[in-house]
Write a structure and sequence with these properties.
The structure holds two protein chains of two kinds.
Chain A: E1 2-6, H1 9-15, E2 21-27, H2 30-33, H3 39-55, E3 61-67, H4 73-76, H5 79-83, E4 88-91, H6 96-104, E5 110-112, E6 114-124, E7 127-132, H7 148-151, H8 179-189
Parallel strand pairs in A: 2-3, 2-4, 4-5
Antiparallel strand pairs in A: 1-6, 6-7
Chain B: H1 8-14, E1 19-24, H2 32-42, E2 48-51, H3 63-72, E3 77-82, H4 88-100, E4 105-109, H5 130-143, E5 159-164, H6 171-184, E6 188-193, H7 197-209, H8 212-215, E7 217-222, H9 228-237, H10 245-252, H11 259-276, E8 280-285, H12 294-300
Parallel strand pairs in B: 1-2, 1-8, 2-3, 3-4, 4-5, 5-6, 6-7, 7-8
Helix pairs in contact in B: 5-6, 10-11
The chains are: A alpha/beta, B alpha/beta.
The structure holds iron/sulfur cluster (2 copies).
């Protein structure tokens, strides 16, 4: 899923400092699961903003709403009524959501309340890790089912580098596993260490962002 | 192994004599005199001098320009190239550019991660890794082709090198990765600085057993310890680097004004020990900001004067 985290409230306050009526919009998708932008977080952020503005003597009226999914025009529609009466929107969906709101309301200022961080998952409660970089041509089967593009700091296809020490990556102050060490251990378990001996040649990055923004088309689904 | 680039380094290694390379890093600015000054000390004591490419991800004047300066001084350069900062377009372009400037030795590296350097906010490239760069240079030289398959008009004559770190993990895989580098195109290897002699010995035994020392020249990397502080720093902060307590104890055991001499003595012993190991083809001396001490270290180690080939 998409992993996101809240921007500091001070940053959001700065964004909306000129507005008197603001709509905070969350999403019931990924950001609810990673505790960053669901209904609960909408409530918390809204009250933080209200209180901070009240304290500073510049009160703000905050409306709250949480979409079923903010990355779907159909679920943006219910905002039509709500936005009539606000000066700006703060979206706490992943960064796809606010762009859907922008698309629907060309004259309404929209601000991101979250930082979208990665495609990943939880390691434990409160800890999330990146697992995929959406390179557009998945090749993890060549690496024991683990992704060196997202998980190796140098995106090596022929790792581990000389900085791999005790199973940890040289980057990340010993907090991040060296994925190439994991790949090595995994291939050892599978009795496939010979795969590590093969030269992995050039990756075609054109399916990644390097080929330009990507559009996925499924002709059979188009109307 | 037939001659490929005909560089001085290649000739010395092929002649079966132990080779010596030194390292000279460009400064963090356009202070060319400082660079020339450092290089002067290395002129008579190395078969070729490595020029680092923004080492530790810190901006310095570029490796290719520095190599040109060495050539003008009559010093043969080994141009280091990292894949961190350039994509395959720029890398291939620089390989060709280096060749037309008369650079004949190229060391292919991935490079330290940008988070360690002076611009941690930069975007790192990593389009290729070191092994893919090795393969690219070999392909351009031997097959006359670029990665795209486009024909190279005028093949770059390069003696191709790579690095190896015998001290990283998993240890058993280090020689396998070395074999991959050789398969990709590496003709000579300069190792990460060695302090743990036992582990290096083991690494060399494994390389010998796999027949790798027949296929490529392994040069042992030595960095003299200038002070106790440096030794502790290396031990603690350089990833994958092991400095045995024995050396630190030795440095601590001499009066302050004798520490540098002790550090040089350790380096000399290490050079001699490495050269005695089967399969070691030479020494790569990285006397960082201690270039002026390189001649004395190499002289005491008995590897001067350098042969004329
Ligand atoms: S190989 Fe590409 S698609 Fe597959 S996990 Fe890695 S980045 Fe994602
Ligand atoms: S230590 Fe491992 S994960 Fe980190 S850059 Fe090197 S190979 Fe990649």
């Amino acid at each position: 899923m998409v992993i996101a985290e809240s921007k500091p409230v001070s940053e959001i306050l700065e964004m909306i400092k000129g507005y008197k009526k603001v709509l905070v919009v969350g999403c019931k998708g990924c950001v609810t699961v990673c505790n960053a932008g669901g209904q609960k977080e909408v409530e918390i952020l809204s009250s933080e903003l209200r209180i901070a503005r009240q304290v500073s003597g510049n009160e703000v009226e905050i409306k709250e709403y949480t979409c079923e999914r903010q990355c779907d025009p159909e679920y943006i529609e219910p905002l039509d009524e709500l936005v009539k009466d606000v000066d700006a929107v703060v979206s706490i969906a992943c960064s796809v959501g606010p762009q859907y709101i922008v698309a629907r309301y060309p004259y309404l200022p929209v601000y991101p309340g979250l930082n979208t961080v990665s495609i990943g998952g939880a390691l434990e409660h409160g800890v999330w890790r990146e697992f995929c970089q959406a390179c557009g041509n998945c090749a993890i089967h060549l690496f024991g089912g683990l992704c060196p593009i997202a998980r190796c700091a140098k995106q090596l296809l022929n790792g581990p580098c000389g900085g791999s020490s005790g199973g940890k990556c040289e980057v990340g102050k010993g907090q991040i596993d060296c994925v190439w060490h994991l790949i090595y251990e995994r291939l050892k378990n599978l009795n496939q260490l010979h795969i590590m001996e093969e030269l992995r040649l050039y990756k075609d990055w054109s399916t990644s962002r390097d080929g330009g923004p990507r559009t996925t088309i499924r002709e059979e689904l188009r109307k | 192994m037939t001659m490929t680039a005909g560089s001085n380094l290649e000739k010395v290694l092929r002649s079966g004599q132990k080779a010596v390379t030194c390292e000279c890093g460009p400064p963090r600015g356009a202070d060319v005199e400082h660079f020339r000054h450092k290089a002067t000390f290395l002129k008579e004591c190395a078969d070729a001098v490595n020029v680092t490419d923004n080492q530790t991800a810190v901006v310095r004047f570029c490796s290719m320009a520095a190599c040109r300066i060495l050539l003008d001084m009559g010093i043969e350069p080994v141009m280091q190239m990292v894949t961190r900062d350039m994509n395959r377009i720029a890398l291939q372009s620089n390989v060709l550019g280096a060749a037309v400037l008369g650079i004949k030795n190229l060391l292919c590296l991935t490079g330290d991660h940008s988070s360690f350097g002076d611009h941690p906010q930069s975007k790192n490239v990593h389009d290729l890794d070191s092994i893919q760069l090795l393969n690219t240079v070999r392909m351009m030289r031997d097959e006359g082709k670029m990665i795209s398959g486009t024909e190279v008009q005028g093949r770059p004559a390069m003696f191709i090198g790579a690095a190896a770190n015998p001290f990283a993990d998993p240890f058993e895989f280090r020689v396998v990765r070395l074999a991959k580098k050789i398969k990709a195109g590496a003709q000579f290897i300069q190792t990460q600085c060695i302090y743990d002699m036992e582990r290096f010995q083991k690494f060399m035994e494994m390389a010998n057993d796999m027949g790798l020392t027949e296929k490529c020249y392994i040069m042992a990397g030595i960095t003299p310890l200038k002070s106790v502080g440096m030794a502790n720093y290396m031990k603690k902060f350089v990833p994958g680097l092991l400095v045995p307590d024995e050396y630190i104890t030795r440095l601590k055991g001499v009066p302050k004004d004798k520490v540098a001499a002790e550090g040089m003595k350790i380096a000399v012993e290490q050079i001699q020990q490495c050269l005695e190991m089967k399969g070691v083809a030479g020494i790569h001396l990285m006397a960082i900001e201690w270039e002026d001490h390189a001649p004395e270290i190499l002289k005491s180690a008995g590897v001067l004067p350098r042969p004329k080939v």
